[in-house]
UniProtKB/TrEMBL annotation:
Residues 105-307 form the VWFA domain. The chain crosses the membrane at residues 12-32, 68-89, 328-348. Keywords: Membrane, Transmembrane, Transmembrane helix. This is VWA domain-containing protein. It comes from Cellulosimicrobium arenosum. PROSITE patterns: VWFA.
Length: 350
């Protein structure tokens, strides 16, 4: 993007206004002189014994003050006309903007099964921190339990992204087992139900990690374009039921689509080094991704650095000229000139 430049869009209007007003003033002055001459017959009226008046200090001071005020009137008129002409000519600021189209896509993939709910609020806050460090990347959020729901597809509308992530924090950053299902917590129950809606369609299972991950891999579009693609998966890998995809099969699908898989382990520390956690970690690391516990303070920055380090071609968009009218300064000039003109004219009439 080039630097902003100040310009006058219609300079001919400015010249036309100034010339027109000055011409009108000149014609009016000439007509006034002609009318005075017609009234007096073109003759000068001499008054006897009045020559001494021109030597009186009070008279000469009055004449000097009168001529000074006439000069101020002329200056005020000129300044007002110049300012009004400039406003009419559209003073503006122009910027030539060439957008850079970033080609990084990140899908946030969140397990909202019962065992993860105590940790989902913290994971969503990690996601919020990640998004705060991105610029131009497209972000999507998919949540899943026995089935998946796309909260929002790939988008670079970061206002919407943060609003939806915060809605998720508000919905799941509480323990559903503590809800008063008899009516006093209706608002919180509704908030939770709306956010997790569509994630329990398969009643034969829960926390189907492989199916959730496979669905996240299908969130990416524009397969024919050269883009870097990442999934940030958050789960405890505690599966209940028979998924269509195992975790390993889903990871193979991710790899076949040239997607980088990063993992956040969201379960309690008591389950660390269990077979489920070990399988999850090894699957992510074997695919070349990063693996962190959700409460690891280095997780956010490390994942941001990894995403930024990935190949990301930037495509030049068509340059766009942005024009913003900036009349305020010249409007004040015109207003100041008119104010000076009015005050000076009032003094002249006195």
């Amino acid at each position: 993007m080039s630097g902003p430049q100040s310009t006058i869009l219609w300079p001919w209007v400015w010249v036309g206004v100034v010339v027109g007003v000055l011409a009108a003033g000149g014609i009016a002055w000439w007509l006034a002189r002609r009318r005075r001459a017609d009234r007096t017959g073109g003759e000068v009226l001499w008054v006897a014994n009045s020559a001494y008046l021109a030597r009186l200090p009070a008279f000469t001071a009055w004449v000097r003050r009168y001529r000074l005020l006439q000069g101020v009137v002329a200056v005020g008129l000129l300044v007002g006309v110049v300012g009004a002409g400039a406003v009419a000519a559209r003073p503006a600021q122009t910027d030539v903007v060439t957008d850079r189209l970033g080609t990084r896509d990140i899908v946030l993939c969140l397990d909202v099964s019962g065992s993860m709910l105590p940790y989902d609020g913290a994971v969503l806050k990690v996601y919020q921190e990640l998004v705060e460090n991105f610029e131009g990347e497209r972000i999507a959020l998919s949540i899943w339990n026995s089935s998946s729901r796309t909260v929002f597809p790939l988008t670079d509308d970061y206002t919407l992204v943060q609003e939806q992530l915060q809605a998720g924090v508000d919905a799941v950053d509480k323990d559903p087992s503590d809800f008063d299902w008899d009516g006093s917590d209706d608002a919180e129950i509704l908030e939770f139900a709306q956010f997790t809606a569509g994630t329990t369609a398969n009643l034969a299972g829960a926390s189907l990690v492989g199916d959730g991950l496979a669905n996240c891999a299908l969130q990416f579009d524009e397969e024919d374009t050269d883009r870097s693609r990442s999934i940030i998966l958050a789960t405890d890998n505690y599966v209940s039921g028979e998924p269509i995809y195992t975790l390993e099969e889903a990871a193979d699908l991710v790899s076949s689509r040239d997607i980088t898989l990063n993992g956040l382990y969201g379960g309690t520390e008591f389950y660390r080094d269990t077979p489920e956690e070990t399988e999850y970690r090894e699957t992510v690391e074997d695919g070349g991704g990063l693996y962190f516990f959700a409460d690891d303070p280095s997780a956010v920055q490390s994942m941001v650095d990894d995403v930024v380090a990935q190949q990301a071609v930037e495509l030049d968009a068509t340059p766009e000229v942005q024009v913003t009218d900036r009349p305020a300064g010249w409007f004040l000039v015109a207003l100041g000139g008119v104010a000076v003109l009015l005050v000076a004219a009032w003094r002249v009439r006195e």
